[in-house]
Amino acid sequence: MNNNTDLHDLGVAQLAAALRAKQVSAVEAAQHFLARAKAHQGLAAYLAIDEDVTLAQARAQDAALATGQAAPLAGLPIAHKDVFVTRDFPTTAASKMLAGYRSPFDATVVARLAQAGCVTLGKLSCDEFAMGASNEKAAIAALGLDAPQPAHNPWNPRHVPGGSSGGSAVAVAARLAPAATGTDTGGSIRQPASFCGITGIKPTYGRASRYGMIAFASSLDQAGPMARSAEDCALLLSQICGPDPERDATSLDHPAEDFTRGLQGSIAGLRIGVPAEFFSDGLQDDVRTAVEAALKEYEKLGARLVPISLPRTALSVPVYYILAPAEASSNLSRFDGVRYGHRAEKYSDLLDMYKKTRAEGFGDEVKRRIMIGTYVLSEGYYDAYYLQAQKIRRMIADDFQAAFQQCDLIAGPVAPSVAPQLGAQTDPVSSYLADIYTLPASLAGLPGMSVPAGFGGAGLPVGLQLIGNHFQEGRLLNAAHQLQLATDHHLRRPEGF
Amino acid sequence: MALTPQDIGRIAHLARLELAPQESERMLTQLNDFFSIVEAMQAVDTSGVTPLPHPAAVIQDVQLRLAADVASEPNQREANQRSAPAVERGLFLVPRVIE
Predict the structure, then answer these.
(1) In the prediction, which pLDDT does B54 show?
(2) For the complex shown, is ipTM > 0.90?
(3) Which domain CATH number covers B25?
(4) B15 inside 8 A of chain A by CB
């Protein structure tokens, strides 16, 4: 590169090509993004960096590039959401419970990306244990800051970046990393991608290994990439997906796939289902306008819009908020102050140690979900809540199968509004209700993505959600890429970055 | 049927969480708010519907795998105990349980 300041404008595909062509070295790329991470630490996107570790990884990739035997993404810098455990960086899930924790191993997703040549820049902020939709539940101070605070939306720093993968969305939008990993349990990749004007995809449940992803709700959690374009996401998702039979009991025996191969295909004749329930009263006008414009663009590209119905959309909120907390209450029982993490200083006996440790280590939202989950799994309530929710979950999944008889993919908004102001959401239940458009695909285990669709109020981005049937990630990425060839929303950058 | 302060105490005990009195009060209000949106779920007729634990089971048979019962991991005691709050001679320390 002639001018290093241009590096952060390159996406994954371009930067990987520049690295292969030796126009830039892996060390230069890593140094450039680390410098940006530090220069913009006021955004609170990064929780931790370690320059020595990053530069050592970069030097190893430069050595591989010099031999001509380099991996496909050799030298590409990437940052990981802090719910992926990493051997060489601290892992906290943005919780006081895990302050200073060091994992003895790398998550499969982290290891696969490293195998593909990626260089880790550091760890990114999120809502505590991935529970939240604003990044405001982060309980660990970000890099260079004294106290915990949410990552700021680079389009308007008075607004949230969304969550739970908020730090990932901010890092990509503000060009502090070319790409990042995220996790999506009920929308945690799609919603922050939408709020920050970037592209993010969650694959079919079971395609990405959950090994080493700190568990929130095991029947819903999925990893996925967040980057600026569908092409960049396709490159990364091709490396992330694939069976992990020895390490993840729910990993599906479905082969890895090169998702870039289908990007260029025409979408003429593609049937795009538009669910009436995603355009009901709760949808804000600015979001509706941007999403409808994106759908019109698809029509221009030769796709056909098909009205469909997902009749149990509204039920997905209570169903999800029973199932996810139930699974969370079980998963988070491991934090007991014995094997890792925080332990209270003063206690009278073992039971008191557990209770005080957990009271001190967990934040309000996490406690609330543990309480809900414990209650709905407790004797006498299991059938009425947990089992009933699992049954409606099947009905919601069946509704999608019926819809996919009529269409090839489904499109609609990601969230009812653009990113809310920091501190505006004080009532937990109303923030749960705002997850209404992302929860159905999560419950059905379907791949879903957010694609930049324009801008709404306060200059904030709006995302278009695309949902595919199981294993149809390629089709989603193809449709997203074709939209991005025809529009430039994904190329816009927040002022000052 | 709204939760009572006694319910909150019982659930917090099951969840091994100590809640300060104000926290309990807030939790009671918030959980009751939450369960008001759950009521819609109770009205759904689910007779004959099989629960869906693994979402891919909608389209294909999903067998949850069992790992073979063999030791496959190397001994990493030191790395595994690096982040433990209290360790002595390779053992995790806990308060006395047996008198």
Answers:
(1) 85
(2) yes
(3) 1.10.20.60
(4) yes
